[in-house]
Amino acid sequence: MNAETSRAARPADCPCGGAAPNLKATAKPPRYAACCGRFIDAGALPETALELMRSRYTAYVLGESSYLRATWARETCPPDLDVDPLALDAPRWLGLAIKRHEQVDATHAIVEFVARYKTGGRASRLHEVSRFTRAEDGRWRYVDGDVTDT
Ligand SMILES: [Zn+2]
């Protein structure tokens, strides 16, 4: 790790909580360095769309815009993407639950999740069915998703 790079402090426990289908709510969260930190800070490549999904949630928590861009399909990545968790109107992410992880074929997968957050003191949920593709470079990337009412 380079001490000169400025970035948000890393938590001990991983913000994603190691979310997985059928994970018990009482499950102990994994350590950040052993979970999403491998991908966000250490350059390891997620082997599944589920691992990528978790690490992208954690990147939102930490404000890692460059990681979000790098893991977003070029065709759908917003050009002005900038996540600042310290901004006044930024959502405060409270937790991630994975409802479904479906490997469609070798290069396509679907992850359904619910992310809980607060904005301006109001609690909300983001329930999304996300699509992921694996490119020829072997990397999974987020394509887009359908937000469903819960
Ligand atoms: Zn994690």
Short characterization:
The chain has 150 residues and is of the alpha+beta class.
How would you sum up this structure, described in words?
The N and C termini lie far apart (41 Å). A four-stranded antiparallel β-sheet has the order 1-2-3-4, covered by helices on one side. It has helices spanning 37-40, 49-62, 65-70; strands spanning 92-105, 108-119, 122-134, 140-147. The relative contact order is 0.16. The model has no long low-confidence stretch (mean pLDDT 92). The chain is an alpha+beta fold and 150 residues long. The protein has a single domain, classed as Nuclear Transport Factor 2, Chain: A, CATH 3.10.450. Zinc ion binds at residues 14, 16, 35-36, 54, 58.
Topology record:
Layout: H1 37-40, H2 49-62, H3 65-70, E1 92-105, E2 108-119, E3 122-134, E4 140-147
Antiparallel strand pairs: 1-2, 2-3, 3-4
The site of zinc ion (ZN) has 6 residues, from α2.
Domain YchJ-like middle NTF2-like: 48-145
InterPro entries: NTF2-like_dom_sf, YchJ-like_M
Pfam family, one: YchJ_M-like
